[in-house]
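Late entry, evening session. Most of the bench is empty. Finally got around to the prediction I had been postponing all week. Sequence below, unchanged from the version circulated by S.P.
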Amino acid sequence: MQLTRCFFIINPAAGIKNAYESIGDTLKSACEQVGIPFEYRLTEYPGHAQEIAAEIAGQATEEKPIRIFSVGGDGTLFEVVNGIVGKPFCELGCIPCGTGNDYIKCYGDRSEFLDIAGYITSEAVPADCIKAGDVVSINICSLGLDAKICDRANFLKSKHKNMPGSKAYDKALVQCFLGKLYNDLKVTIDDDQVYEGKYLFALAASGKCYGGGYNSAPMAEPADGLLDFILVKSISHPRVLTMIGPYKSGKYFGMRRFRKIVVHARGKKMRVEAKTPAIINVDGECSRISDLTIEVMPAAVRFVVPQSYLKK
């Protein structure tokens, strides 16, 4: 796609206080450097990024395509994705200015996305998304203990505005550990693989990381047309403690002591039925569900990647 227009949706509430002011100056300088106008809008309330993205994406044409950049954290990216998915002649980018920014780890280090002039003029590649009920995820959907932790982490971040996402997640994990750890679930993958019982959590991944750096799906590929489904069976509180470190690093998949409790499958669809309402985490946004179908949306968006990724 020929670069004719870039639009930046900036969340001034994301990340460390006032970080958006310095990133705004950097964006303006980068646009001047590559010879395009600096167009942007600040979000003013939850859901505003989605509204702005839908409006701007609707202006894209084959002759005048648009790149829309999410400038914030994973929550801002989630909203922008839901605003542009299904819109032709529009590409998605992400300038990390939040406390998590987990999805971009599929493509490179955070610093590579902050080489603004190089990044905004780089190429875009197809990226799968995940349809979870009425919303769309570009990264990971999870249900159960880890979603409960995410919900608690969101509360902590709202209460302590400058708390990094990784610290909020770790603190929430400790707090949630004191309660019930499992959910009674029936999970059906691609209509033919059925798992039923007590599970710590179930997740569907297109990306690799969530929760401020938890490498839960190290084998996932963001553009292979499939989702990686991971189920972790209920285990004792002490054993959960032994799993936290390996789960965060992604090494738990290769460890013999976890083989009997971890289920891994790849496919296009997963239905989750919970006996009692369970919390679901969709790219950091949490709600409660009893019955949900999660499906892959192959090549649903085109995502701008760092130039270094294209050389791999």
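Two things to note before I forget:
The CA atoms of residues 144 and 201 lie 4 Å apart.
Residues 6-128+301-310 form a domain with the Rossmann fold fold (CATH 3.40.50.10330).
Will write this up properly tomorrow.
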